[in-house]
Amino acid sequence: MKAITYDAYGTTPNLKLVDVSPPKVGPGEVLVRVKAAGVNPVDWKIAAGYLDPILEVRHPVIPGWDVAGVVEAVGPDTFDFSVGDEVYGYVRKEWVELGTYAELVSAPVRTLARKPRTLTFEQAAGIPLAGLTAYQSLTRAGLRAGETVVIHSAAGGTGSFGVQIAVALGLRVIGTAGAHNHDYLRSLGAEPVLYGEGLADRIRALAPEGIDAGLDFHGDGAVEMLQSLVKERPRVVSIADYEAAAKGAHQLWVRPDTADLTFLAELADAGRLTVNVEHALPLAEAAKAWELSASGRTRGKIVLTV
């Protein structure tokens, strides 16, 4: 099969499109014929070696965790899905080696759910990591309908999912973003607030009695800023500040979860969760996709079509 690989830590030029053996399919796994693979910043950060202290990486690596495709085979004693089922998922395994930038990927069933019926494969592949991160951040903060949440970096890939999910859950959402993204946030149902100096005061003007929770999807001192605004200090969740736990906040690392993926699929099929695919590139252009991701100038999702 064709797959993108890299042999050592380095930069995007290390990516190669090569022929490799199809993956084995063990108990509790299915073989997925990949239609689209989502591109996330973590993919190129792993390749650069930034996560080496916490992730087991075995070279050569096929990168990628997000996938949408069709079940081609099932492993022994595996009955969760059948051949021909359309699925999507966050295929994070025990170590980084056999990912989704390939024609075929073996996926533990705990990492998959049935693909949203109303979305294309490209749209579905853009959801798993970012969508799960947003939803699990909201649940980690213990938010309930009627409460107010601030989402820091609300127009980004994770933030825009967070806004839509929060609105669907009945929350009031205040979202931070640059001025050029304010109309976009309003279209998703958030009240936009401008980044930069004086941000905390602008949020206080919108929520003078305080906010119920804060989600940090950006870092750069946001945890402390959000803690100064929440009614209860522990209700701050960060995916961007690796010292969040030491500061009394929750530091979240997203987990594969079939039930959560199913919830997101149901939101999408109900028209409550949309996916903006800004770039859909062929598998051979994975290096270009990483360059676009690293530029930080892409509002929507980047996917590779297979």
UniProtKB/TrEMBL annotation:
<dbReference type="InterPro" id="IPR036291">
    <property type="entry name" value="NAD(P)-bd_dom_sf"/>
</dbReference>
<dbReference type="Pfam" id="PF08240">
    <property type="entry name" value="ADH_N"/>
</dbReference>
<dbReference type="InterPro" id="IPR052733">
    <property type="entry name" value="Chloroplast_QOR"/>
</dbReference>
<dbReference type="InterPro" id="IPR013154">
    <property type="entry name" value="ADH-like_N"/>
</dbReference>
<protein>
    <submittedName>
        <fullName>Alcohol dehydrogenase</fullName>
    </submittedName>
</protein>
<dbReference type="GO" id="GO:0016491">
    <property type="term" value="F:oxidoreductase activity"/>
</dbReference>
<feature type="domain" description="Enoyl reductase (ER)">
    <location>
        <begin position="10"/>
        <end position="304"/>
    </location>
</feature>
<dbReference type="InterPro" id="IPR020843">
    <property type="entry name" value="ER"/>
</dbReference>
<dbReference type="Pfam" id="PF13602">
    <property type="entry name" value="ADH_zinc_N_2"/>
</dbReference>
<dbReference type="InterPro" id="IPR011032">
    <property type="entry name" value="GroES-like_sf"/>
</dbReference>
